[in-house]
Amino acid sequence: MRFGLSEEQTLLKDNVNRFLEDNVPLDKVREYADGGSDSTIWQGLSDLGIPALLTPEEFGGVGLKPLDAAIVAESLGQHIAPGPFLGSAVMAPFALSNSPEGFGELLSKIATGEHRVGIAFGEAIARRNQASVHVKDGKVDGTSLFAFDAEADSYLVADQNKNMFLVSADDDGISRSNLTTVDRTRRTVELTYSSASAKPVSTDSNLFDRTLDLGRVMLAADTLGAAQSMLDQAVEYAKQREQFNRPIASFQAVKHMCAEMAASLEPCRAMVWFAAHALSDVPEEARLTACHTKAHLAEVGQFVSRTATEVHGGMGFTDLLGLHYWFKRIGANRQWLGAPEFVRSEAAILQGVD
Amino acid sequence: MRFGLSEEQTLLKDNVNRFLEDNVPLDKVREYADGGSDSTIWQGLSDLGIPALLTPEEFGGVGLKPLDAAIVAESLGQHIAPGPFLGSAVMAPFALSNSPEGFGELLSKIATGEHRVGIAFGEAIARRNQASVHVKDGKVDGTSLFAFDAEADSYLVADQNKNMFLVSADDDGISRSNLTTVDRTRRTVELTYSSASAKPVSTDSNLFDRTLDLGRVMLAADTLGAAQSMLDQAVEYAKQREQFNRPIASFQAVKHMCAEMAASLEPCRAMVWFAAHALSDVPEEARLTACHTKAHLAEVGQFVSRTATEVHGGMGFTDLLGLHYWFKRIGANRQWLGAPEFVRSEAAILQGVD
Amino acid sequence: MDLSFGPEYDDFRSDVVNFLDKNSDKAPKGGDMRGEQAKDWQKLLIENGYTCRTIPKEYGGFGAEPDIIRSRIIGEEFSKSRINPGLGGQGISMLVPTLLEMGTEEQKQKFIRPTIHGDMIWCQGYSEPGAGSDLASLTTAAVLDGDEWVVNGQKIWTSTAHLADWIFCLVRSEPEAPKHKGISFLLFEMTTPGIEIRPLVDMTGVANFNETFFTDVRVPKNQIVGERGQGWQVANAILGHERDTLAPPNTAQTRINALVELMKTETAGGERLIDNPIYKDRLMKLQGRVLAMKYNDMRVLSSRLNPGQDASLSRMITKLQGTELRHELEGLAIDIMGEVGLSYDDNPHLRGAGSWQREYMYYLGLIIGGGTSQIQKNIISERGLGMPREPKIEKKAV
Amino acid sequence: MDLSFGPEYDDFRSDVVNFLDKNSDKAPKGGDMRGEQAKDWQKLLIENGYTCRTIPKEYGGFGAEPDIIRSRIIGEEFSKSRINPGLGGQGISMLVPTLLEMGTEEQKQKFIRPTIHGDMIWCQGYSEPGAGSDLASLTTAAVLDGDEWVVNGQKIWTSTAHLADWIFCLVRSEPEAPKHKGISFLLFEMTTPGIEIRPLVDMTGVANFNETFFTDVRVPKNQIVGERGQGWQVANAILGHERDTLAPPNTAQTRINALVELMKTETAGGERLIDNPIYKDRLMKLQGRVLAMKYNDMRVLSSRLNPGQDASLSRMITKLQGTELRHELEGLAIDIMGEVGLSYDDNPHLRGAGSWQREYMYYLGLIIGGGTSQIQKNIISERGLGMPREPKIEKKAV
């Protein structure tokens, strides 16, 4: 019995962290936030094999498991790295490789990072603003809001009935416009379809659900990494910062704020590990754990991001340290693919209570 | 403009407090909790005119207003005093003196304290356990749960449609059994009716609602007094108690716990005052404020009672200081006449949202 | 309990309403506070006693006796009609009261009239990167050289530095004295050579503040308020007032009404958000807290009108509770909107012009600024509850 | 990630299950731990290695090598079948490990066998009215008089004092030494003259604890564990273990399942409580937290099985989070039941035999006991996050 990461997984984590430390410092994130491109970052991650992680070996992938992807997601969150990881390296490869339609060639391109797939699931989760997606005779009409990422080559689109389709970003019937959010480390878009070609991926609502679960666990892992970074930064700052002739880390109020963050966050690590592991290896617990992990990390993430900002005092409120990028990323993870109340109501339904 | 107590009200408060300090020390409360009687306490309060407070002057009462009663309720909560105040001095006199049926003689007896009226409203608020009250041709059948108080001479009973009746505790068709709760400073009973005589009081649901609002504000005031006492006791204990060679009141963690209690509780005082005042003088805001005050004090009371116990450390968990009597009284006030979620849903309905 | 203001105040309120009816076209719209229209409007307001009401006539004010109720009525009616209530800023709100209390006659004559008429805009130089919660540890140095102070150092959170003509500034003039006794309160022009201003962008994405650097800035010796080394007392004479105004309960009321409207218009899965019982319960919880703070505020007002009423604790907790409440209130709005709640800046799906996210962050800033919540809790426990101060740690030898 | 225990453990689990099937009739029901049946059952369990598993054979134990998984399997199966898992108490859980680590051979021989076989029941004398969080400030005095210690003072929270044959007790034997170095660890019989026991009723209404008073209690000199003045280290060698067991995640799991059942059977206004969206959301929030603690616990277990895995922070936060979680969980049950939730003792409408209120209070006690949440947070920040200790205050001159 071993609850935790294998040596290979620790190595993967170290590799990704080293790459991100060297290549995605805060200045690089700022560049992207100010309108720059994430292509060199994605190229670097592709060289490490990240987009191939979940793709089956028969399609040129590495054929690893959700837990491996969660490890990467945590690192990306820790470094608030831009990039299409969630859609193109996780959700799309999973959905497409489990599709009965056969996407072998595309999967190979996704695995090398040369083709990026975005996700447009908003209407299948909690429909808002009368936006909707209609597919008939291989053509799609309607609107998807807050699809990610903004530079995808194609989008995995879901309609209200959890049918999934693939739509090319180059299609004449698709238009794409930027939807600015508080989180500048990733970009979302509005997709408007007007008789765009929609290639069927799946009519199996179970595959949609599993793809969604996977995405939610990745968001939880991203929050875990980002929140851990904020806690680490807060502790470090408190040790350096002196007021009243002593480091503020020696004030009991500051210590207890940090202790409360650690006490809330530390169990989340085991939770994210188990949730990711369950997706592949404990199917009977996978869906419920995915919901709870998404919702719980949203709550803990909010608490940590707010408290870590407070520990930083005025400096946390400024742009000088860039701490707000973590704050906002955690805030965005909270809302993406289902806000906590919504996801908890799904958890209840899964247990036969609705 | 004067938001606060008048000189007469301050005098009333001082009088009641002085009586309770002299006559209802913790030992007296323990006696009652262990099965003793509250009759001498009630006699003393009656000598002060407390049961006559809200009764109109024409029926031998003092004809004061809900705010005056709230002041008394706060003192009773502060001293966790046993007694039938809520029913016999507040809710019943209000309902009976506003009844079209004419209860002049009874009101005079209530005003002197010689007749105690209890309240059995459970079924009209949030019906549980299939208990219910049916009245037909002046006879009542069914069950009321958690009616207060246990020694009443008659009960003001409400059915599911908010009709109110008066039932004598001596009636052959009524049986009464004790319902032990965590709160030993007051006693509740189960009333079982079997063709007991029910004298009509009102079929006006508005009168029921106003009687209920009044009761809720009194419970909020009782919680205010009890919570303030717990905070005061915690601060005092922290100043006396030494650990690590200093009073624990000098530890920032303990200071902040006390500051948080004070910060939550202090606005409650103004809220209770206004809510009570509104019942008589700002009718358009009265119902909503009563709901919010009941629910808000329940939440703040829970926070304060738990935190004050923590400040007392192990001593707070023992029976030695009797702190738990305050804790449990606040816990009971939370549930009586509607728990917070329920009362908040009423507040929403009052604003046209349901 | 008497919630009425009395008939003479009803008349006064009518006067204000009439004034606003007649003159609303003269009021400037939007934010420009330096234009001629803004100055003319300010002049008209002063003449009618609707701003700078208690500042003596000899210094350019209206010269009325203090009357909290009249001031509140003015505030209420201007707010209700959404008409510009006159010039604000730290010069008018902080420096002018300071000068009235501690300034020399010459300083009052020189600075108050142009300040309240918008001809002299001020910024505040208190906080430093190394002196936040522990403001008294500030190190910006002022050394007397002949008839001039020579100022070197750095200030932060100087909100309107880029617009200001003058700065009122705390400096360390007596480096050998105990830290609270070595500070002086200087006034100087922002055009003085040696001043550099850098905008300070905050988490809302806007440069609401600045960093201000001083290199050998020379200040005439007499531009000091109070004596040398008295700067801490001068600043503290009015610092408490600032905290009161950081989270006024009436704006929380306005915001929660806006939130109710938002919840009635937004839908998810075809259902109005206000019909979601979980969101509704969170809304009601907040509404209860907003009401408690509203009545608390009425109690504070009452205590200022009625000698003998004590509401010091009520006042002391306002900033702590009010900022937290607003942060949570704005956060609920974001939560209920799902992904739409993330919208910012130029996003076409923005609700409330982006105010929900902006205020959510801004109020986190206010939880920190103007005395962090931790400092507030120290104050409440020590001054409000009489608990002992923490044992002092002496400055370490360097 | 490997969540299986391997085939040899499956066999072991079958053995346990078979044993339970065959012997369940021999197990005592209910709480009496002093009767012959309880002792016989304990003997049978020890012989089969289902309790006192790693205690050497020579001291009456089973003498197995430590194997956390086997221990856990035993715990799981006994818990699942609700069969009495053998004797507990502070003698077995705390004193025996202490003696094994720090006791003399003579002490081991004399005390361990009767203790684990239920012939010698112990209570713990650590806390004092004046020494709670600051346990090391204890003042119960032991003065050597010839070959005997003379003990005077008072202990509190001595849980089984009224049942115990012996006490293990911290006393101040070197009043001149620094406070952590002046303590000794004594063992003595509860029948020694000069001991008075008073039951200590707590907020649950039950005397779960006692106060114990010592007046000139004479203890043979050699009934000391470790050296004079070493008592603090002796006690601390195993004190950490106690905290781990205060809020085990698997009981939280059991409780939340019971809460779900309660919410499915209780109704209000004709509606099942679990169909109330607000209660349901609160329940789901708690379930998420219970799951997080469950996985956290698996990680702690794993770190004990796999050298090199670090889960020290996971372990450090268990008591703080677990007790808070349970308090809130029990509180939700009370809330949803309305007035029925207040029922206690002999109330006929009691749910779960009164456990909801009892545990709600008991877990508030546990938030305080065994190291208050404030002390836990000090430990987490200092040992877990490397933050500095607070500056020490020296003892004032009296």
Task: Give an overview of the whole structure.
The complex is a heterotetramer, with two copies of chain A (354 residues) and two copies of chain C (398 residues). With 354 residues, chain A is of the alpha+beta class. Chain A has 13 helices and ten strands. In chain A, helix 4 (66-78) runs parallel beside helix 8 (205-240), helix 9 runs antiparallel to helix 10 (283-311) and helix 10 packs antiparallel against helix 12 (323-335). The longest helix of chain A is centred in the middle third of the chain and has 36 residues, at 205-240. Chain A is globular and about 75 Å long. With 398 residues, chain C is α+β, with helices and mostly antiparallel strands. In chain C, 45% of the residues lie in helices and 14% in strands. Chain C has helices at residues 7-23, 36-48, 68-81, 90-102, 105-116, 231-244, 249-265, 277-305, 312-316, 318-336, 355-368, 373-384; strands at 122-125, 141-145, 148-156, 166-172, 183-189, 195-200, 209-220, 224-225, 267-268, 271-272. In chain C, helix 4 (90-102) runs antiparallel to helix 5, helix 7 packs parallel to helix 10 (318-336) and helix 8 runs antiparallel to helix 10 (318-336). Chain C is globular, with a radius of gyration of 23 Å. Classes of the chains: A alpha+beta (354), C alpha+beta (398). Chains A and C meet through strand 9, helix 10, helix 11, helix 12 and helix 13 of A and strand 9, helix 10, helix 11 and helix 12 of C.
Q: How would you briefly describe this protein structure?
A:
The complex is a heterotetramer, with 2 copies of chain A (354 residues) and 2 copies of chain C (398 residues). Chain A is α+β, with helices and mostly antiparallel strands and 354 residues long.
